[in-house]
Structures are given as structure tokens and as C-alpha cells.
Amino acid sequence: MSARKGPYECGLDAAVDVIGGKWKVLLLWALAESPRRFGELRRELPKISEKVLAQQLRELEADGIVHREVHDQVPPKVEYSLTGRGASLNEALAPLGAWGRTHMTHLEATFPRRHPAEA
Q1: pTM metric for this prediction
Q2: What is the pLDDT of residues 85-108, one digit of tens each?
Q3: pLDDT band at 118, cuts 50/70/90?
Q4: Which residue from 61, 58, 1, 52 is spatially nearest to 23, judged by alpha carbons?
Q5: Is the bond leading into 75 cis (omega within 30 degrees of zero)?
Q6: Does 73 score more than 70 pLDDT?
Q7: Worst-scoring range by mean pLDDT, 34-38, 41-45, 115-119?
Q8: Is the dihedral of CA 22, 25, 30, 34 positive or negative?
Q9: CA separation for the pair 21, 35 (Å, rounded)
């Protein structure tokens, strides 16, 4: 589970604590489509390392956003899906995504992404 800052100042502070990080919102978006296996998520987000993907999924699971289901079969099959809380969080992020789409061109021109080595 991610380190918490302590008592929250407001609801937005709590929400940002849950979705903070480069990949969590993209994982929520991917899982909104349908349950996914680890490998499927890895292919959908090719720039994420396996270590970070596993860590982000564990944190989202600990926060009650993602459900991890292990199917009793050989080889083992594990699927990740959104919980009800995760689906409601994804819905809450929709207006933020719309704002981003509206302003993406301006943001990309004004604040070009740094090279990964600079991050």
C-alpha cells in the first residue's frame, strides 16, 4: 500500500492520494472496459515495467479500487477488475479526462514532456 500523508485536508486530497502516480488513472481506464489479466494490462501500457504494474495494482487493490480474482485452474489465471468504488472513481475522472482532451494541444505545446531520463 502506498504511504499516506496523514489526515486529509479535503476530499480532493484523499482522491489524489488514491490515484497519484503516472499509471493508476490509465489502469482505471483500461479496467473500465473489462476485466484484464496482468499480461493484457502490460501490453496495453507498454511503457510500464512489470514491477511498477504489480505495485500499482497492489496499491489499487489495497485501496478497494481494484479486485484481484484468482481462478482455480492450471496454469493459474488471475484477473483484475474494478470494484464498485473503482467504477465510481472512474466516473468521477471522466470530466477531468474531457478537460484534458479539450486542452491537450495547448498543454503539449506549452509544456512538452521531458525526456524519460530527465524525469
Answers
A1: 0.82
A2: 999 999 999 999 899 899 988 888
A3: very low
A4: 52
A5: yes
A6: yes
A7: 115-119
A8: positive
A9: 21
Domain boundaries, the chain: 11-118
**What dotted CATH number matches 11-118?**
1.10.10.10
Determine contact, residues 62/1, Cβ cutoff 8 Å. yes
Residue type, 111: F
83 residue type, one letter: T
DSSP one-letter code for 117? G
The C-alpha cell at 107 is 498543454
**Which grid cell sits at 109?**
505545446
DSSP state of 48: S
Q: Which amino acid is at 92?
A: A
